[in-house]
Amino acid sequence: MKVLKWIFIVILALLALIIVIGFALPKDTKVTTSEEINLPPAKVFHFVAGFVDRTAWDPWIKADSAVKCTFDIVPGYVGSKYNWDGPVVGKGMMQVDSVVFGSYILNRVSLMPGKFIPEEWVFTPSGNGTLFTWTITMSSGSPFGRLANKALSGIIQKTMDGGKTALKTYLEANGVQLSKLTEIGIEEYPALEALTLSAVVSQQEAGAWFGQSYGKLYPAIQAQNLQPQGTPFALYEGYDPSAGKFTVTAGMPVSAGGKNAGEIRLQKYSSFMALKGLHNGPYDELQVTYAELQTYAKDNGIELSGVAWEFYLTDPAEATDPTQLLTLVAMPLKSK
Length: 336
Fold this sequence. Notes:
Multidrug-efflux Transporter 1 Regulator Bmrr, Chain A, alpha+beta
């Protein structure tokens, strides 16, 4: 009996010690890892927040060859979900709770009903690339839970360190495309008249020139008491490969009654048929859309005239997320 009594006392003492140690540990156990990637923050952010090719680098998913994953992607990222179910990793879900485009992501991870673990990503510029910090926080009010979290943190740390390396390797090998092309088809565009400015510029000069030109067109529209009749556009009518320059026009459709005023010209355009596509994303990836449309034209026996229109459906001053910029590209068909 005395032996049993002492065993019981020892067990109680050990439990008391565990409780004391457990309560001495912090409620939150954070596991953090960081890495630099040779891509800009916006692209690394988009790749992670949009669950783009997540299965190509996620360390837990890669550890389970039989896992099945499904994705429900929402424009703007918040609310997007990533579900998995596998014999090794079990069943779980990750949902994007909040974002600051290009700099911050807060996800919540559920490994059992009603229980959530926060996962945070912070992206900061570093030279020509990005420094990201990835943090998982495990919380418990129980001393036993705190001890368990502390014990698990080492395993999680090792897994996350492997994940960050896989993410870096994948992104630097494959890159990230922020844009996508939708709504490809043939469409007729109505005649329009517009106040315009034209010039011959290089691709490098085009962005600054268009910005200055639209800054002149809007005051001219007001000065002539005209009403805008559509979205601003760019018209590309020729390319001189020897000089590396385009003949370009910046324009704004207006109501009838416009007139020439100095360098600003009133132009009247006839209706035309065109191969069109909706470019969703930043302007610096428009060349990807043009390449896809040209491939589509070739594959479908469509002859193009060599002229291209861009109608800007989104005000860039109001877009905090470049993936939400919408540009309608129209490439007129060759006359027969």
